[in-house]
Structure formats: structure tokens, C-alpha cells
Amino acid sequence: MDAQKFKDSVNATKDNLNKNQMNDQINQCIMAIQDSLDARKGEDNALDIVREECAEFIQAVSKMIRFGEEDDWYHLLEEYADVMIALEVVKHIYHIDKSEINNAYLVKLKRMVGKIRENGGIIK
């Protein structure tokens, strides 16, 4: 997406939608994507998309570290959103329940907090 168009759209959305409207529109879009996948069942394709979107996110992170300009921040935001969408698709294809994700998320968060307490910071 064109960088300026993305930036303008993000700002317009922020100014024109309340939280409920935002959630409703997100859910409608996710359902439309899921409906299209049900017809094609592209599991391998979905995993390829996740891989590509994660790679683009990594590139955006690298640019943010190197340059840290406002446009880089919006690029990071755009790629973050693309990764989230790709992960939603994978969640749907593999029938991963939100409670399963939350459980895994909590386990990983607790592990990270334990490492921080143990080592005074996040260490691999």
C-alpha cells in the first residue's frame, strides 16, 4: 500500500470510528477472509503468507532501528497489521481457539517474567 495513503487511512479511521464500530468492522473483514478460505482451503498458501508477512515485518523493524523516522513507524505499523491478519487466517484454518492462544500467551508471558526476575532482564 502507498505509504501516504496508509498513513492518511489510519488517521482517518482513528478519528471516525469508535471502539465498537472498529471491532465490528474488523470482525466483518476477518469473516469475509475466512469465508473465502473455506472455499479454497489453502493451508500451504496461508503458511507461505505468514512467512512472507513476518519477513516484511522483520525488514520494517530493521528500518526502524536504523532510521527511526515517522514513515518507518507507519511502515512498522502496516507490517504489524499484515502479520496479525495472516495469523488470524492460520488460526481459522487450523481451528485454533482464542482460549488456546490466551493460554499459550500466558505461559510465555510468565516464562518471560520469570527470566526477567532471575536475570534482571530478558536473556535468551
Descriptive report:
The model has no long low-confidence stretch (mean pLDDT 87). The radius of gyration is 17 Å and the shape is globular. It is mainly α. The protein has helices spanning 3-16, 19-40, 43-66, 70-93, 98-119. It contains five helices and no strands.
Spell out the helices and strands N to C. HHHHH
Radius of gyration: 17 Å
Main beta sheet: none
Please state roughly what percent of the residues sit in beta strands, choosing from under 5%, 5-15%, 15-25%, 25-35%, 35-45% or over 45%. under 5%
- Globally, the shape reads globular
Count of DSSP-assigned helices: 5
Helix content class: over 70%
What structural class do the secondary elements suggest?
mainly alpha
Number of strands: 0
Strand and helix layout:
Layout: H1 3-16, H2 19-40, H3 43-66, H4 70-93, H5 98-119
Helix pairs in contact: 2-4, 3-4
